[in-house]
Amino acid sequence: MTFSTQFLSALVYGSLAWCAVTALGLGTLLIRDIVRGEIW
Amino acid sequence: MTSEAALLPAGVGWTLLAAFSVLWIGLGIYWGRRNKSFEDHALAGRNIGLALGSATAAATWITSNTTMLAPQFALQLGIWGMLAYSTAAIGLLLFAPMAGRIRKLMPNGYTSGDFFRLRYGRVAWAVFLLFTLFYSLTWLVSMAMAGGILLNTLSGIPYAWGMSVILGVCVLYTMRGGLAAVIGTDFIQSLIIIVGIVVVGVAVLSHVPVEKIHANLAAERPALLDVLFPAAIMAIFNNLLFGLGEVFHNNVWWSRAFAFREGVAGKAFALGGLIWFPIPLAAGFVALASGALNVPVPAADMVGPLVVAEVLGEAGAIGIFIIVFCSLASSIDSLLAATADLMTEDVYRRMFRPAAHPETLKKIAQWVTLGLGLFTWAVCLPRIGTLATVLFFAGPLVGAMIWPIVTGLYWRRANTTGAVGGMLLGAGIGLFFYFAIGFYVASLIATAVSMIWVLACSALSKTRFDWALLREAE
């Protein structure tokens, strides 16, 4: 039994999209913390 | 490695190294200017917000192993290999609720050593210090050594120079800026690493679609697609336990739990785990493309950079150089800061100078950071090779500490006999099997033995710990 093409595609595209979203999320969180004066 | 065989000209490597060195040191000095006391230096004033907190949790866990070893895992263990590497994120996710509890129970705590001293007494504290210092110093040396080797392989910069520069830069900005500098640079480094991995991944996919990668693997190396690949499934347990033990015990993570603003610690570690989880998958799959792209791979540990250089040329090699440099710096600085804090708080202050002034402690922490840097440099200079074996040797020590920590944080009946016996028996029996069978069972056996002993001692215990004892005044 082997992993299918669809599974590999989901893993690869999913992880890249996840990384892109987390980078955007981190940037957004930083801006939010700066605006609230809660960065550190 | 000669400069002719490297992926980048040495001049480009030196320019990148110089530029990032100036940036990190400059930021370290700038962020360190407000540090007046040991608390400011070691814990950034205990006021870190969610953005920096989440980024530092993820960045510290992104070592050079994550960006270099994940592709190697994929090449050798296939899809399960990538997934196995990603399970290390579970350590951060499970530490999230513990971090919130640590912050609540120990509002004045500084280190994981403080927890052992207050919760289990001085004998358990001594055993813990011995184990954790051995592990932390081994990890530090292995990271610095990896830095020299990787910079040499990528750009031809001589090993001794590359190792010295990366270590020296991290020592300088950690000394000057303390945890604030470490966490601030971690944020920038984590963004560079994540964006870099996405760019590299998209570039690889634009050259070879997933369907072609899958077809090539099915024809040439079908084991990498096997759902029942035994070695790869074993790797999941090994990585999972190692990750849990490392995160649960090491002061790198505890110091962050103390440094985050109230109410932030749990969320920051949970987000850090979610940020980290896809990185080994996104960084690892490029190795699976090596066959479809016809990239020769003379050494498995260089498969990632080789594929990226093939697809993106010199620009890709520059990207990999920056990603690797950031991955190394984000781990070396954290280890330097956390280990220096442990030696300052647990050894200097608690054993020799209980009445030391906060400003004096800050200076001691800075000198200890420098001393750690010099020690690491002296050990790394002869280039004795890989320290992977020694790190695996530390696996049973790390595994044996999981249960004393978890039960000590949540169970009033967890006691000193359980903690000391669990650590010593678990580590001892784990090390016996390390030599008798192999590294891949050592952590598992150490954790299991420690668990049985700790649970038995807790079940038979009549004592009930008073949580208020953890709220030690400064």
UniProtKB/TrEMBL annotation, chain A:
Keyword flag Transmembrane helix: yes
Stretches that traverse the bilayer: 12-31
UniProt keyword list: Membrane, Transmembrane, Transmembrane helix
Protein name per its UniProtKB record: Uncharacterized protein
Organism classification: Bacteria, Pseudomonadati, Pseudomonadota, Alphaproteobacteria, Sphingomonadales
UniProtKB/TrEMBL annotation, chain B:
Keyword Acyltransferase applies: no
InterPro entries: DUR (IPR031155), Na/Glc_symporter_sf (IPR038377), Na/solute_symporter (IPR001734), Na/solute_symporter_CS (IPR018212)
Family from the record: Belongs to the sodium:solute symporter (SSF) (TC 2.A.21) family.
Keywords attached to this entry: Ion transport, Membrane, Sodium, Sodium transport, Symport, Transmembrane, Transmembrane helix, Transport
Any GO MF annotation of the entry: urea transmembrane transporter activity
One GO CC term on file: membrane
Gene3D superfamilies: Sodium/glucose cotransporter (1.20.1730.10)
Protein name: Na+/proline symporter
Topology term for the membrane: Multi-pass membrane protein
Coiled coil: none
Superkingdom classification of source: Bacteria
Localization: Membrane
UniProt main location, coarse: membrane
GO biological process per UniProt: sodium ion transport
Transmembrane segments: 12-31, 43-62, 82-102, 123-151, 157-175, 187-208, 228-248, 269-295, 315-343, 364-384, 390-411, 418-437, 443-461
